Structures are given as structure tokens and as C-alpha cells.
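note to self: dont lose this again. the chain is below, predicted strucutre after it. 479 aa total, dont forget to put it in the shared folder this time
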Amino acid sequence: MSTQPLWTIAAMADAMHAVRVGALPDAITGISIDSRTLTNGEAYFAIKGDVHDGHDFVEAALKNGAGLAVVAESHRVTFDERLPLLVVPDVLAGLIDLAHASRARSQAKIIAVTGSVGKTSTKEALRSVLSAQGETHASAASFNNHWGVPLSLARCPASAAFGVFEIGMNHAGEIEPLVKMVRPHVAIVTTVEPVHLEFFSGIEAIADAKAEIFAGVEPGGAAVLNRDNSQFERLQARAREAGVSRVVSFGADAKSDARLIDVALHSACSAVRAEILGHEVTYKLGVPGRHMAMNSLAVLAAAALAGADLALAALSLSGIQPAAGRGVRHHLGLTSGSALLIDESYNANPASMAAALDVLGQAEVGPRGRRIAVLGDMLELGATGPDLHRGLAAAVIANRIDAVFCCGPLMRNLWDVLPAAKKGGYADNAAALEPQVLTAIGNGDVVTVKGSLGSRMKMIVTALEKRFPPNASLDDLAV
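---
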């Protein structure tokens, strides 16, 4: 990691066309939009959000150690002129200007990641493998929207050798302005699935929205696409129309440039043999699931295209860990032994839900243990929602799930078609389902909790962790 300041005040003010007020430092160490979590010497950007206006927290940010605050001209009169401020017409626009300046100064190889499923996990895997080969900057958490992308880009040190940025959307037209800011050398589309159908006419429209990522690819750059996906040919055509000079495919399809040859799926990892751009590699993947093995092909292809050493990248995949809420495992200490919690609570759609059930099906339970799925509504599916929830019954049965707990009006559709022997419990919402789940957990069980953010399934994860803290004296459940 670079020890140099992130931005000098002169460069920062020039990029944002900002007016300087008060006793400003010479430079800043970072950028924050949260007055509660910033560290000393960072610049606090007073972004106006849907709920809060960052200007209300400027003084708190400065008291907490911010080196300066970036505020809007319309709020300037509310602050003491002795405070260290950079004043701009609009704070978000100023952040975007700084992001453009960051990209202009960067010599890093830039990779952008989008897709219906697997964006954050793929981005984090790239962060892990590239960090072993050079200074790597990547988006924090799921900062992939209209403020998250410019914030991530503005935070990129000038010294970075690699940059990895996640780009998301739930409406057409959202990706293009973001990717034109990022200007990647490599653009990955992990897959296209029926998500956000509330806002799209069909999966082809979703593919076209994802294809906006090609609009920002640098001359001579590459697109990395899932050949096994139904939308591959459509995406390939869109990439070529956008002038992307190289399309690299990944998947199990024999024509894939990054091809899965064989995979051995285990409860907590996978062993993969693949051919990546003409080179055969065998590696251990530190996270379970066939979907993760497939995305690792895209990771290796993108890393190689960005100039990283392929063999070292493959070796580094053994150390990757799931992102928060996307498969993190917690041991639960029970009075009679232990259970395993798989936290998939961050979000959900039909593809990621099926993948999570597959991983649960591969999990090793203890003696008399059960595989338990705790599922909340998958949102933004429009009129197809009820059918897509009912359709999960096949994955429940195929993966030998012993008990299913459901909450929410959409999950009621799954509950109604489940075999009686697999019905664990139902409630209208996560809060009402929580006590049912807490009383059901037994020794040797493996429990997966998943649902869309709006389903608030994280509260059940938190309740399980609080009720059953890990007990080091107990033998851990095999994973």
C-alpha cells in the first residue's frame, strides 16, 4: 500500500474547481462520506443522500479527525469560515470530477466487473490475486452505484499497479456513465440472469443494460464473457459493436478461452483444473460452489489480460475468502455441541439463491445434523416473482435440504409447494421468523440464511450469532 498522501490539496482543488476556505492541510490521506468511520487526515465529502444530508455532519466529521470537508456552495454560509473547507457547486459532481482526475493520473491496469450475480465475489477474488503481484486498489464493499463508483475511483492511489471496480445497475442507462469514468482495460460480465425484472421487459433487456460496460473499454482492451450463459452471443455482438477489440469467453463450453476442464466440489473449497488462454492450470479455490469455480475462470482470464502472472494468480486463489453476507461461515456454539451458519444474507435473486442451495447441499453435517435453509423474499422480480419463488422447490429437493424456513409474501409461494416433510416454519417477516429458527437449530446442523436486502435476513444471522457464540471447547463441525 502506498505511504504517500492520496491527494494534495492543490491537485484536489484544481480537479474539482473548488474554492479554498480556512486553514487547509497540504494533503489528505483518504476520502470518506461517513463522519462516523473516517480516519484522521481524510477528506469528508458532504454527500446529500436519500435519507441524510452530509452537510449535517460536517462539524462532527472535523471533530472526528477529518482534514477537511467538501461542501456545497449553497451551504457555505452555515459554516465558520475558519473551518477547513473546499467549496464546490455540488458535492457529488465534485466527487465525480475528482474521480475523472484520478483515472487520468492512473497508470494502473483497470478491470471493471458487472453481472447479475457474482460481481462482488469476483471483484474480491481479483483484489486478492492481484494484490500478490502489485499494489492493488479495489472498490470497498459493494460500492457500485452513482456515488460508490466515483468514490472508489477517487480513492485510487496514483501508485496503484492494478485497479478493480464493481459496477452495478437496476435500470438501463446506469452503467454507461460509470464505466466511461472508470475506462477499464478489461470488462467482465459474470452472467446475465432474470433479476430486476420489475424494471426490464426480459432477460435480453437486462443483457443490453449490462452491455453498457463495453462503452468505456479502453482502445485495445478486452471483454470477458460467460460462454455458458444464454446471453453470450448477444453480449459478444454488443462488445464488438462498441469497438472492443478482443472478446475472451469463459465457461465449461469446449469453445471457451478460459475453459473448465474438471472441478471437484467440496464442502468448503473446490479443486479446479482449467485451461486459461492456452495454458493448463490446476488450483485450489478457497470458497465452495460450482458457481465460484466458474467465476474463478473469469478472474484468471482477466488477471492474465491485465498483465499478471497466471500461475501465481492461480496459486493465490486458495486464499480467497467470501465477502460479508456472501457465504461467510460462522460456528455456532450449542450446549449440546455446535452447528454451522452460512451467512448469505446480503442479497438474493433466483440464480444466487440456487447457488446458495447448491453449496448447502454440499455441506457436511454432523451426526444427526440437518441442512436447513432460512429464506426471505427475492425482490424486484415483477410479475414473475411468484413463479420464480415456487421454482426454488426443485433446488431444495435436489440438494437434500432437510428443513426450509420461509418469510415474506413471495416466499409463501415456495412454502405452499414444499413437501410437508421439508417445512420448517413460515412467518410474514424476518422478525417473526427469527424465534422459530432460534429454537430449531440443533447439534450438527448447517444453516444457510439468504434473502434480498429488503427482506432483512441479516437480523436472523445476527440473532443466531448472539444466541450461540462459538465455543472453542467444542469440536468444530466439519466444513
